[in-house]
Amino acid sequence: MRGAQQSAGPERKKELRAFLKSAGIRFRNLELLNLSFVHRSVSNESGVRANNERLEFLGDAVLGAVCAAVLYGRFGEKSEGDLAKVKSIVVSEDILSGIARELRIDALLILGKGEELSGGRKKNAILADALEALFGALYLDSGFAAAFSFVERCIGPEISRVVEKDYHADHKSLLQELCQRRFKEYPRYRVIDRSGPEHERLFRMEVEIKGRVYGPGIGRNKKAAEQEAARLALERLKDGSGVPQA
Question: Which residues belong to the active site?
């Protein structure tokens, strides 16, 4: 649905029912389901307050709880730090937006005209937020057990992929994939300083992405310093404080 209408008419309800069948979930309240796809740009243009931001807030908490519970149950041998690293990747914008596309949430978004024209239907942040809003809506509609089952089904394969490929330890690989996917280019590393005697040499590395520099990463060799610089870049990109222009 491409317009900015919020209430679900007959044709919209048909689309929503088709989505539910495809996603393998049930909703008693189709209006609540519909609301999970209403972007705040609709409110900004129309003045109508209802949008999916509150559902996103709730869904983020549901997602975090499910992800933590699944990780805790699956990986009894991993430390809290390792579990936290995996969780931070699994609930990242890039992975959530990918899940949203697989569910075809992009086709169900209700956007304001300006956001529609600017390509909002393809933006990772909007898609990830809508998926979290869907999690929140399902929790309200059908309870935590139903929400847990659906969220686990969505993120379970991603957890396996992250753990099997050990991406949480290889920050350079993760950063490279993110940059290719989001910015269509590779990160560039360079040494900015070497210090200390040969047997205790310290390297300081920085990484550049679309003209923006992150770091420095410090390590006993170039590889370790690059990994640390990549980790710092990922943190900045994740919290939105260091996002270059795509």
Answer: 60, 132
